[in-house]
Amino acid sequence: MARRGIIAAGNMLVDHVHQIVQWPERGWLAEIVHSERSTGGAPLNVLLTLAKMRTGLPLQAVGLVGEDNDGDYIMAMLEQYHVNRQHVQRTTFAPTSMSQVMTDPSGQRTFFHSPGANRLLDLPAFDRLDNSMKIFHLGYLLLLDSLDMPDDEFGTRSARLLAQMHSLGFETSLDLVSRKGDPRYRPLVNPALKHLDYLVINELEAGEFSELAIRHENGEPHIEHIAQAAAQLLAAGVKQRVVIHCPEGAWGQTPQAPGVWIPSWHLAQEEIVGSVGAGDAFCAGFLYGCHEAWPLLESIQLAHVCARASLLAANAIDGAKTLDEHRAFIRDNAQAAISL
């Protein structure tokens, strides 16, 4: 029987999202005009977006949350959207991870993050996963302290985990966290790459890894450098697909074919409500395309339209639409891909 379903593992947190009038100068006050609570982190954002797409795929979460109100909220959200939460464990040793997210009128977000229980997530949490599932997605590297620790054989414990998942027949996927100037990018990312089928990152993360200027001086994406960064990542071991996305579009590349730049659908600044979780929504759409063996172009188009829907809501999942709605939008708003 063919394997079917997506497991998403790693950072689980609650985003306390605040819309502010403007970003204040240091020492000054900024008014909060709206606040809400939502789930956050790679596994929850990806899984709940897929659940709201009504794809019918089996979905499973793996993570660690505290014995507190935010942990209760995460468990309740997984139950509400029929995501298997059997491997979401709870601990009294740390609170549920939490972010205070400030969203300014342009939609730009700033995070104040408390790692909490995510620091403690380690290899035993991944024992006895359902081997009938097809894709194992891990996020975010550089925010999972125990999995980011060194490993004598694999380089890092996260690389050991991804190798283990690969040996069990899973297709493996990884996402990173955006951290400017973090010297750990190469040491923590490189060991994992040879155990990956899919790598989905944004242009900031690609720049940190490749040390290339990802934008021109005028602010436009430097597509040639983005392509070079993707080629570096494939050369470092990613087996099937590397995608580097930014607001203007995404570069997708495989080992077997030249890469392609696929523009996103433009949104006017005043249409953007918030960008929290847009990258995870992109990843959800892309992983669905990979799961269904869609061509690279169609997979990235679905990723773009999932991210676009996310931008129309303040939190990570409220904007998510059904797969049928996304496919209708793509059909009615064709975009041309560009090869270098």
TrEMBL record:
SUPFAM superfamilies membership: Ribokinase-like
Species the sequence originates in: Pseudescherichia vulneris NBRC 102420
UniProt keyword terms in alphabetical order: Kinase, Transferase
Gene Ontology molecular function terms on file: kinase activity
One Pfam family cited in the UniProt record for this chain: PfkB
Domain Carbohydrate kinase PfkB: 30-320
Protein name, UniProt field: Putative sugar kinase
InterPro entries cross-referenced by the UniProt entry: PfkB_dom, Ribokinase-like
GO cellular component, one term: cytosol
